[in-house]
Amino acid sequence: MRAICLDQNGVRFQSEHPSPIPLSGEVLVDVIAAGICETDLQLAQGYMGFSGVLGHEFVGMATSGPFAGARVVGEINCNCRQCLRCQSGLGNHCAHRTVVGIHEHDGAFADQVAIPQASLHRVPDSVSDDQAVLIEPLAAALQIQQQIELAKIQKAIVLGDGRLANLCAQAISQQVKNIQVVGKHELKLARFRSLGIKTTQLSDLVCEKEFDLVVDCTGSVTGLPLALQLVRPRGTVVMKTTVAANHEVSLAPIVIDEISVVGSRCGPFGLAIESLQAGRFDLSNLVTHRFTLEEATQAFHTAVDPSAFKVVFDVARSSDI
Ligand SMILES: [Zn+2]
Ligand SMILES: [Zn+2]
User: Choosing a second label site near 303 at 20 to 30 A (CA), which of 36, 83, 195, 252?
Assistant: First the structure.
């Protein structure tokens, strides 16, 4: 099958990659479309030391099991379902887990991907393929409200103007009216304003410790130090993005200002699908570029370009096998 693989030589397209062999409990999914995310860009720079087929944001067609023939999306953590963490509902933190396209599990930038049956969710007909590709990051954005009581937040700021920032800002703005987004790219910031969300250019930002909640979606080591300049004493910083580079930041403000720093990763797929069905998120026009799997190099170059928003591989459309 066709696949986009990462190894020590970087990201490259392979026309004859072996098809995945499903483990017990796994289902083969014919991939329809898959999106490039910031994590993929970080993996390509060495984050997690991953090698294998990339891609964890996808929609596809299940080939067997109860969802056979139906469009599905898949959660990315493949856990053991037996350890204490799994049994206490913390399967996303299973010490034995693999993670689709991120850690010891081949991903979805390919004609087929093997996903545990238990991780699959059926995609309702009213949700388009483009929207479905964004269910995984939307679930991650909705994880914030599982961890923080948003009703208590008066003033929030999201750092970053990219894909995940957009979904996080939309999620938070449903409960926090005083919210703004700070970023560097005028084109991207305009997308937030069209959603009714206030924006500030990074160069115009006045750093005062006035925000109850700061959400770092920068995908950069500069995010956390900036967040610590903006969060009020006893406020909360949520870190949504992972970066390959090491942070060099003074942690003293966390102690002095008694800041809560909350790491936040994967979220509830069920709620994301329900929110899309209810029309609570505007995901229109988020997909700006489409490529075939063969165009992997060009697609990864485009994904780091500030003019691009969501870059998607149309896998089924380009398939000739
Ligand atoms: Zn992702
Ligand atoms: Zn486990």
Answer: 195
